Amino acid sequence: MKKFALATATATALTLAMANAAFAQPTQAPMTLAAGEMTKAKESTSDTWITTKVKADLLTEKGIPGSDIKVETNKGVVSLSSDVAISDSQKATAVAITKKIKGVTAVSADGLMAGGAAKADNIDKSKEATSDTWITTKVKADLVTEKGIPGTDIKVETNKGVVSLSSATPVTESQKATAVAITKKIKGVKAVSADGLKAE
């Protein structure tokens, strides 16, 4: 009788141990999945971040027609293209700037029309005309790189130095204040309108 009771107790203990082990596994699996999903989300926004950062750096570089260069990023591979002809040295500069950006794995500049002989003084004049474009790109880049605010969700528009910020998703009051403060620091910004930022 004692042997039977001992065997029953052992069987019960084993069953409980197995049940606990089986129970413990499902709780770990979703956490691993969630971490994987977070990584995927980071990967998908990193291409947006790279594109914005490359555009900003090309626009702020003197001697190259940054506003005429189109930037596309796919899994860290950046493609540069332009509708206007640029010189070989400008092409080399654009590629060098792009390669320095964090997260860039490769640069394709086949779409850049080399062979132009643009003069630096003409480029500076075109930059003045497109200063609103420059401001917009610079603001976007600074918002995307700022931690704690949803930079990729904030839409930026500039008209004669006046920057309008808006978002489809709600932001907190502190995030709104940070976005406005960052925008005000940008060279050429005359005023900031954040009425379009929906605060929570």
UniProtKB/TrEMBL annotation:
The keyword Signal applies. Pfam families: BON. It comes from Pseudomonas rhodesiae. Gene3D superfamilies: 3.30.1340.30. Residues 46-116, 131-200 form the BON domain. This is BON domain-containing protein. Residues 1-24 form the signal peptide. Keywords: Signal. PANTHER family: BON DOMAIN-CONTAINING PROTEIN.
